[in-house]
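Exercise 7 asks you to align residues with tokens for two separate proteins.
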Amino acid sequence: MSPKKAQYDPRIDAYIARAAEFAKPVLNYIRDAVHAGCPQVVETMKWSRPHFEYKGVLCGMSAFKEHCAFGFWKGSLIVAKGDNKNADAMGQFGRITSIKDLPSKKQIVAYVRAAMKLNDGGIKSPMMANRKSRKPLPVPGDLAAALKFNKAAKATFDNFSPSNRRDYIEWITEAKGEETRNRRLATTIEWLGEGKTRNWKYAAKR
């Protein structure tokens, strides 16, 4: 019986082709390493970003104007804390601007195989488990007042999932100063009025 042919998604080919020049080798490097680690992997697009699946999501990658991002769905169970470079970017490897910012292909293959074992065992993502167990946050007074003056924003907020509402509430309440809080509040109302989630930029088609 011949080995199963690798499953490549033409939408990811197009995504890489549209990416900035610096990002193309990075994305191809990640893609090749994931396929090497999991020949059965299935490529797909989720939230307008390339993802790789095997009995569920394994990992995903993104290209932005000045950096790329790469992360495992159950990253906290796969990438050791000392190897986690995530400071101000999605995923576990920080802002990736070249292949040098990534682990070796051998290491990525090891991560992929670890992710496969978790999916084989039906292990849930800790992040998703925590989100489900958290109680809804109370809506701060300034946000509630602002929503009363913008029907579109209020409709979006009211129809959001608890996790999407929490994203905005935490962003506002975690502001360190009044000026920052007011700026975030204004942005929140603007984005809600446009039907956007707090992290809409990461889900935007690129």
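Second protein for Exercise 7:
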Amino acid sequence: MTAEHSQLHVYSAGAVAAPLQEAVKIFEREEGARVRVTVGKPANLLASIAQSKQGDLISCGAEYILDEAESRGLIVKGSRRSLGARRSVIIVPVGNPGGIRSLADLCRPDARIGVAADGCLKGVWDDIASKAGVTDAFRRNITHYADACGSLMALINQEKVDAIIGWNAFHNIWPDSCEVIELEDRLQTFRSTVIGIVKYTSNMNLAQKLVDFLVSDKGRGIYADYGWINRECKL
């Protein structure tokens, strides 16, 4: 394998980068390959691929983001694979100063909530609140909007809000910054973390090898260590 054909450029959304980067290190050792991971907000990653017409793979925390990529002709149709799912939870600052214990507490008149207006958590608050029948009460308490998971966690770190709607894996990635309040099973939302091969790849074989590694038992085990859930089954 030539040097040119032993390199990959992978784009990754920020909050799904940690397990990917760990898996990539193992893949590099096993394959003798080099993998560069560019981390950023999904919208910026798609814009970069569209403008540069370069790259080999992209991973994001919701299928709808790669729906957009596929509809724009930026990824190879049929190349997408799910790497596991994350479960929706309430995230609060360490110590839980707002005393949030349940979704009902987020509907108190004094609650301050942060939600995502973009990225993998876009719209998740609506799914949860609508199931519970508390949409209006919940919406009245949304005080801050964020455009990505990192921006949401900044609201927690700066204690600008009492809680955010996030993913269970946040605690594994930022264990010193937050605590998790579980939602009732009936209110939970799951979204797939997905990877797809970029249309402009110059190394399809190696890109496919990385995908295969990520969905192998070893690859899925790395994601599971960070809190991802393997919900794939054959009906």
